[in-house]
């Protein structure tokens, strides 16, 4: 069974068996505009909450995507190397960014559910 | 960056209604993108006709018996022999030949010129020109126009179908309209197109009418930047500044040699005494897909610092990253290999001729 969480930095996490798939929300991709490059993280890298995990580059600017929780990177979405625009066209599905093994599941408690996130972006 | 200090475009409501996303540029609340998105907006302009609100830019009218004489002093420009309708790229230079601003000066009458200046320099340009004008028999007026640009291969046909005219027939020519207004065949995209200054009510009517043509879309500032960068055009404050002179900037072509020798304009002595520049502006092509941004350092193959990227981003038409920078002059050679650094990664980058996309101006 999976549960989806949202952060104030406009990321989503789909968590299943202690493994989180992370991406950015539709709202975030709209704000960033058309992406032309995604710098993917190294597999095996340990991240603390708030560390830069991925850098997404739009036509105009570079933006950091932060680790929403502590954990170790287990997989990156290689499809984005050739097709970064997947993040724009399918942010919640084909445009996922990375997967990570959670080190502290209690950190999920501070995150929002979809209704809370929608209320935040208004 | 408080809202109170930010200037709002007269057509802001139209941009809001069109779904624009806004950002601040040179003190103005500007549409950055519309729902089409920067990529498609860019390509749309190269294929059809893109409508830009460039009212942040400033138009001056210089009028009177000594208007040509004033402009020939204020700019490295021979204003007297310009034919009515003819426009020229020129500059305000400081005493060291540093570029205070780049301008387009168009003669619209025997004693009248229109000067188009950059948004970021509008106030200092006006002050500068008024100071120089003190001893000349002419007036300077800021024209309170909404300024629109329609750019792209369909621009002329769109304007004709909308019944708008008369239109200047060749690139870098311009005219004033009866009843108030200025149209020039110019732009900042590398495409054929027009820049049109009109009083608010006329501009609103024209914009509404143009947008009923299916070949026209609003285009935001983000695509304006990627279009001009592909076209190899400078952004003042970024690629050129008071720290760059026309030689470094690669813009000496805008100041003919006989004029440089004759002098008489502000900055002439300094310009004449410039030796070979240490650095020159050049196009740069980063290898791969990662955009290299303004401020990135340039290194020669031995790792020595040799310059800086001044503008960089992604070129949707060429489908690869594009950049411009100031580079040690002896390295400005075709395909000279260099490298830069982005977030600690070494990225190969090579000298590339400008523009990245061929200009398609109407010269005929």
UniProtKB/TrEMBL annotation, chain A:
The keyword Lyase does not apply. The modification N6-lipoyllysine is found at residue 60. Gene3D superfamilies: 2.40.50.100. Belongs to the GcvH family. It comes from the Bacteria. It comes from Mesorhizobium liriopis. Keywords: Lipoyl. This is Glycine cleavage system H protein. Its cofactor is (R)-lipoate. Coiled coil: none annotated. The glycine cleavage system catalyzes the degradation of glycine. The H protein shuttles the methylamine group of glycine from the P protein to the T protein. The glycine cleavage system is composed of four proteins: P, T, L and H. SUPFAM superfamilies: Single hybrid motif (SSF51230). InterPro entries: 2-oxoA_DH_lipoyl-BS, Biotin_lipoyl, GCV_H, GCV_H/Fam206, GCV_H_sub, Single_hybrid_motif. Binds 1 lipoyl cofactor covalently. The keyword Chaperone does not apply. The gene is gcvH. PROSITE patterns: BIOTINYL_LIPOYL, LIPOYL.
